[in-house]
Amino acid sequence: MELVLNDEGFLSKIGDWNEAVAVQLASLNEIELTEAHWEIILFMREYYQNYKHLPNSRVFTKAIAKQFGVEKGNSRYLHKLFPQPLKYACKLAGLPKPPTCL
Fold it and tell me: Most buried of 50, 76, 86, 96, CB within 10 angstroms?
C-alpha cells in the first residue's frame, strides 16, 4: 500500500491506518517496533477514539502511568522508545500531529 503522508510525515487519512501501515511508518522513522512500542501505539489510538483529542505531553505521560504503571509512564522510559514520545506515538498510530508538538 502506498502511504499518503502530509509534509510532516503524518498519515493524511486516519482511516488508512492498520498495523502494516504502522510498521511502514516506523521504518520510515528508523524505529524498530517492539511489544513496548505497540503497547503505546495501541493505547494512543484508543485514547484518541475515546476522547476525540490528543493530550499534551504531561497528560500523555500521566495517562500511560495510569494505564501501565509508573515504570512505563515516565519520560525516561518513553524516550527509550521514541525520539519525541508523544509526537512519534501519534505518528506511528496514524493519528494527527498533536497541537502541542513542534
Answer: 86
Judge if pTM exceeds 0.90. Answer: yes
| Residue 102 in domain | no
Domain assignment of residue 85, given as a range: 14-92
Supply 39's cell numbers: 503497547
88-100 burial, b at 16+ Cβ within 10 Å, e below that, comes to bbbbbbbbbbbee
The one catalytic residue among 14, 23, 33, 101: 101
Give me the CATH number covering residue 64. Answer: 1.10.10
For residue 5, report the phi and psi dihedrals to the nearest 5 degrees. -115, 155
Q: Verify whether residue 90 is a known catalytic residue.
A: no
